[in-house]
Every structure is written in C-alpha cells, then in structure tokens.
Amino acid sequence: MHDKAADRYFAEHMNDHAISPTKKWQDEYGELTGERIKLYSDYAVPNGEVKEVEPIRWCLRYHAVGTAGTATAAAKCVG
C-alpha cells in the first residue's frame, strides 16, 4: 500500500521527471542566499553611517535644549 501511495505522489508532483527537482531547489537556494548576503551588506553600510552620526545628533539636541538638557545627552555630546 505504501508503494502505491508513493507512486501516486510522485506521479502527481514530479511531472514525469525521473529525478527529484532537488538540483533546481539547491540552485534557487544558492541564488536566494547570495541575494540575502548582498541585501545585508547594502543594509550594513548605512547602519554603520548612522552609528557615526548618532553622537552628532545627540550633541545638537543637547545644545538646542540648552541647560535643560539631560545628563545623558551631555555625556554623549563630544563637542
């Protein structure tokens, strides 16, 4: 009975191919992995730039508020 069910499954899903579409799936996985790595590197560059600019933002905020600024803002202000 198991063999008949397996035969029906393969007949329905394999589209008369003798081998499974594993190679196609592996190729697609490789392409998607490459795309994911590229997108992450595209994200990492602006994220690093934001980290560089963050102290400047804090400093500007501290000076805009003046003496009412918080101690945390004053500590982050480098200039």
Structure, explained:
This protein is an all-alpha fold and 79 residues long. It has helices spanning 2-13, 22-65, 71-76. The protein starts with a helix and ends with a helix. It is rod-shaped. The chain has three helices and no strands.
Query: What's the order of the H and E elements?
Result: HHH
The secondary-structure class comes to mainly alpha
CA gyration radius, whole angstroms: 28 Å
Strand content: under 5%
- Largest sheet features: none
> What is the averaged pLDDT score?
76
What characteristics describe this protein?
79 residues; mainly alpha
Question: What is this structure, in a nutshell?
Answer:
The protein is mostly helical and 79 residues long. It is built from 3 helices and no strands. The chain has helices at 2-13, 22-65, 71-76.
Q: What's the structural blueprint in terms of helices and strands?
A:
Blueprint (H helix, E strand, L loop, with lengths): L1 H12 L8 H44 L5 H6 L3
